[in-house]
Amino acid sequence: MTKFRTAKYLPLVLVAASALNSACQKQDGADTKTSADESSTPAATTSQTDTSKYLSQPLVKDLFTADPSAHVFNGKIYIYPSHDTAAGTPENDNGDHFDMRDYHVFSMDDINGKVTDHGVALRVKDIPWAGRQLWAPDAAFKNGKYYLYFPVKDKQDVFRIGVATSTSPSGPFKAEPKPIEGSFSMDPAVFTDEDGTSYMYFGGIWGGQLQRWATGKYDSTAAPEPTTGNALLPKMAKMRKDMLGFDGPVKDVQILDENGKPFPATDHDRRFFEAAWVHKYNGKYYFSYSTGDTHNIVYAIGDSPTGPFTYKGVLLKPVQGWTNHHSVVEFKGKWYLFYHDTQLSGKTHLRNVKVTELTHNPDGTIQTINPLKS
């Protein structure tokens, strides 16, 4: 999840505005009725757009969804996205208009099959320490439990990362009474290696507040990102065996260029902005992320889940809309990229999740994906 910025950075978006309806659904036996200022559903706007210009079509059309975290559990794909709403909050550079208040979990038996909405899995109001803004989550399975990791601002308006548990991959999830000790910023992504060790990667600059922790202490006056020196780096920590906290200190994730040098802060085409994700292929570790204001998803490769990672190139070119956020998953022998754009709404804060196949080249690099057809 990112923040908004002025129009000079926006890729082409749709001109047509969509009508918004309040949601009223019963799913998995739970009444998920919400008032109009709490949620909104896409109107039937797809017919108003040129669907042929998009590489893929929205997976979910009755809710606005973004930042899809995809995992394979019990032979199915489960998607853990954020839930965009038309809350009426004014847009600003801190992303206050991304005012999400709950999560839904979705599943698919097949990549081209029906998408099942399992209803509300967790709400802001059910998290004891939370204030506002449930941004991009992730999930994991271990110890016979499912773990939902989420960023949310606490009651002092500081982003922390929390964890909630369930006996089912679809939830509902029960949040722990406090955030993960030592956590900060947002966009948690948890990777479990073949030896069973799990790691969390996290962080996002600008509205994600990562820059406010550059000195090791929270500084609300910090600039959105440095203009000189090296770029800010994402963070990582080894997870405890119980998956409820960190097992050791938070460390930088080193992202290096082809010469083994860190990126300068001015290299907006390659420096980290947000949306970390890790997947493993042929014994190598792939660290992918969003460049933010240049709108690419890029990737770097390393020999260890703790890095360093060497930059290799662009995985996904800019989507329609301002933000770009993804996940990579293997399913039935093929690899897939889950991502979002704004096809259904044309508005930067009302997005829809999509999926397309991802291809690793023989040399281990990844073929660049263009989400818009030329």
TrEMBL record:
GO terms for molecular function: hydrolase activity, hydrolyzing O-glycosyl compounds. Residues 37-50 have a biased composition (Polar residues). Pfam families: Glyco_hydro_43. The record marks D187 as: Important for catalytic activity, responsible for pKa modulation of the active site Glu and correct orientation of both the proton donor and substrate. Residues 1-23 form the signal peptide. PANTHER family: ENDO-1,4-BETA-XYLANASE, PUTATIVE (AFU_ORTHOLOGUE AFUA_2G04480)-RELATED. InterPro entries: Glyco_hydro_43 (IPR006710), Glyco_hydro_beta-prop_sf (IPR023296), Glycosyl_Hydrlase_43_Enz (IPR052176). Keywords: Carbohydrate metabolism, Glycosidase, Hydrolase, Polysaccharide degradation, Signal, Xylan degradation. Residues 29-50 are annotated as: Disordered. This is Alpha-N-arabinofuranosidase. One of its GO terms (biological process) is xylan catabolic process. It comes from the Bacteria. Belongs to the glycosyl hydrolase 43 family.
